[in-house]
Amino acid sequence: MMSPEERFADYIDTFNNRNYEKLITFYSPDIKLMNGTGRELIGRDAIVDCYTKVNERASRKIAICACVSDGQTLAAELKSTFTAMQDAPDFPSGPMAKGDQLYINSFVFYDIADGLYVKIRAAIFERRWMRAEDRPE
Amino acid sequence: MENIDAAGGREWFERYLDAFNNNDFNGFSAFYAPDVEFYGQAANLKGPAEIVKFYRMVMERLDEHIELKTFVGSKTHVAVEIVTTLDFRKDWPDFAPGPMKAGDRRQTVNFIFYDLNAEGLFTRIRSSRYCVIRER
């Protein structure tokens, strides 16, 4: 049986691979997610819809910087890298031009029941932009 | 049996918070490594003396109380959700999140991550705001 930390690593891999069919198996049907921009998503479909739209315009890779769990709650520091695949003037964290990158370090709490995530709450610690025009060739 | 009062445990952390909430500067700074780095929402600080100096200045202007809502800890990391209540006793026009007046109360929910060294001392403290309950 996987530890909460191992299961979380599997969840992040699933997220990074955009395997939405598997992704929803980590969530309780009544999952609530409050992301770092203050937006609340309720239910598996709402989460998949949101990230499907985000991923249409920007590739997102999440790395786990730190993770600790007591089995009922898991806390993680995540580093997300968004790379705009196209111009996205209404991107949730701010307008992005094709090639722009956004790095976000966030602190996230996951409440766990019966092995499923029931509530996810994220707060942004650091947000850093790397504009395409400023990136080295 | 695991010693729940050991560094990284909830009771151990609650002793840190008790010291902080009681303005016990020696008590709470005893949890800091000599090279501790503090990344707060109002200041970035290095070393126990700088942190204590900052909080002495803060506590002259307001009463700060921290309520622990969620705790997860290990020997290397502690992550907490806290409600921070600030009761301003003096005007603070250049307070980082916005000007405050004596009598104002500000309440926020914050996520704090602590890194621990092998001696069980904090080496890095980082705070991010999750939401504002009351602006002033």
TrEMBL record, chain A:
InterPro entries: NTF2-like_dom_sf, SnoaL-like. Coiled coil: none annotated. Residues 9-118 form the SnoaL-like domain. This is SnoaL-like domain-containing protein.
